[in-house]
Amino acid sequence: MKYECVKAKSLLSKKELTADSWFHINRSLNAYRGCEHGCIYCDGMNEYYHVDNFMSHIRIKENAPEILKKELKKLGFTSQRELETETLWSFLPDDDAKRLAMKRPRRIVIGVCGGVSDGFQPAEREHKITQQILETLVDFRLPAMILTKSDLVLRDIELLKELNEVAFVNAVFTITLHDDEKRRIIEPRASSTPERFTALKELRKSGIPGGVMATPIVPWIGTDYENIEGLAREAKKAKAEFILFGGMTLKPGRQKEYFMRVINHHFPEHADNLAAAYANENRYGQPIWQKLPTNVMLTGHQVCSTIGISDRSVRHTLPYGHEINYKVLGILLDIEFYQNYLMGLPWKVSEPFHELSVKLERGVEDLQVLREEGRLKETLLISNTLVEIIEQITETGSCEYLKNLLARIPDESSGEQKLGIPSDEVIE
Ligand code: SF4
C-alpha cells in the first residue's frame, strides 16, 4: 500500500444539491483520494475519476481542513470562534444574536465521507484528516452526514455528539452483506459486518441519529431474501432509524473488469448471470433490469414493512429551521422516491412534489403560519392538491396521499414492476 500526502486545491463539491431524498445532503467532500477498503464494486475505480491504482495508492489531502475553512468562509459561513470575537455580537442578548444567526447561510448539510472514498479508511487512524474536518464543522456549527464502512468512527464519538448538539449529524453505515464470509471477498479491508452493526448501535446509544445504507446489493450474491431480511433485522436491533436498499451499477472499463475478475475467481456460479445483466455496457453502469434476479428495492420495502423499520431516511429538523417544514419536506421526498423508484411512474407525476421540495429546502416561511394566514397557494405557487396535502400534514401530522401510494406499491413476487396511475391523478 502506498500512502502519499498531497495538497488539495479545493474540497467541497461545486454543485449544491437540493432536495436529496437519499441522505439530505447539499455538498460533499473527500478527505482522501483512493480507498484502501477495496470493495470490488467500487465506483471510484472508474476512469471518470482519474485515480490510478485506486485501492493501493492513497492520497492524503493533508491541507483539507484549511481548504474547508476557506471555502466555508467564501460561502458566507462564520466560525463560532470568530463569532465570539465579533464586538457587536458579544454585546447582544442571546435572542438577538440568535435572530442574526438565522440570517446567515446555515442550511447546508455536508456529506463528510462516502463520496468517492471512505473518510474512516485505515489511513485516517494516523492522519486524522476526517477528525479535523469534523472539528471544523463543530466550529462552524454546520450539519454533516457520515457514510462509512469502518468502525474507526467510534474514535470520534465525543466529537460527533458535540456536532450533533451544536448542529446535526447523521451517521450512516454501508452494510450490504449479512454473511461475513461473503463480505470478506466483496469488501475485503472494511470493518466486518458485525463490527459495523456494533458501531452503529454505539452511536445510536449516544443519541446520534443514523441508519444503514444497504447499497449496493450485488445481484445474486446479496439479493436473496435471507440477506435482505438479515440486514433489516440487524439494523432494527442496532436501533437504526432506517435501512435503504439499492442495487448495483457497474460502469464499463476498470470497474467492471476488476469486479468480473473477482467474481470469476470466487463466485464462478454467478459469473454468467452477472455478465449478462451488465452486458449492455451502459455508461452509467445501469444493468438490464429484466435480467436481474429481483427488484431489491421492492423486496427491501416489503421486508422493512414486515419487520417495522423505515426504508426511507429520516428528515430531521436542522438548527433554526421550522419543524413542520421539515416534516412536510420529508413526506414530499418520500412520495417522490416511491413514485420514481418503486412504482416506475413517469417524471411528470413526481415533478410537482420535487419542485415544492426544492423550494422548501431553499427555505420558506413557517408553513404553519402560511396555512393559518391562508397564504400557502400564493406564496408557494402550488396546485390545490399540494395545498391540501400541506394542510393535512400541518393539521394531522400524516398524509393520505402517501398512505394511498404505499398501498399501491406492487408486490415484488407478483412480478408487477409498474403501476399505471390514471392521468387525472397527475397533479399540476
Ligand atoms: S468503502 Fe467506498 S470508496 Fe472505499 S473501496 Fe469501498 S466502495 Fe470504494
Report on the architecture of this protein.
The protein has 428 residues and is an alpha/beta fold. The chain has two domains: 2-307, TIM Barrel, CATH 3.20.20; 323-425, Orthogonal Bundle (DNA polymerase, domain 1). 46% of the residues lie in helices and 9% in strands. It is built from 19 helices and nine strands. It has helices spanning 64-74, 80-85, 87-91, 94-103, 123-127, 129-140, 157-166, 180-186, 193-205, 225-237, 254-266, 268-277, 296-307, 323-342, 347-362, 367-372, 376-380, 384-396, 400-407, and strands spanning 2-6, 27-28, 32-33, 57-61, 110-113, 144-148, 169-174, 210-214, 243-245. The strands form two sheets. The protein has a six-stranded parallel sheet. Helix 7 (157-166) links the parallel strand 6 (144-148) and strand 7 (169-174). Helix 6 runs parallel beside helix 7 (157-166), helix 14 packs antiparallel against helix 15 and helix 14 (323-342) runs parallel beside helix 19. The protein is globular and about 65 Å long. Residues 415-425 have low confidence and may be disordered. The structure holds iron/sulfur cluster.
In the CATH hierarchy, the third-tier topology of the largest domain is known as: TIM Barrel
SSE string, helices as H and strands as E: EEEEHHHHEHHEHEHHEHEHHHHHHHHH
**Strand numbers in spatial order across the main sheet:** 2-5-6-7-8-9
Radius of gyration: 22 Å
Roughly what percent helix? 40-55%
* CATH architecture identity of the largest domain: Alpha-Beta Barrel
Tally the beta strands: 9
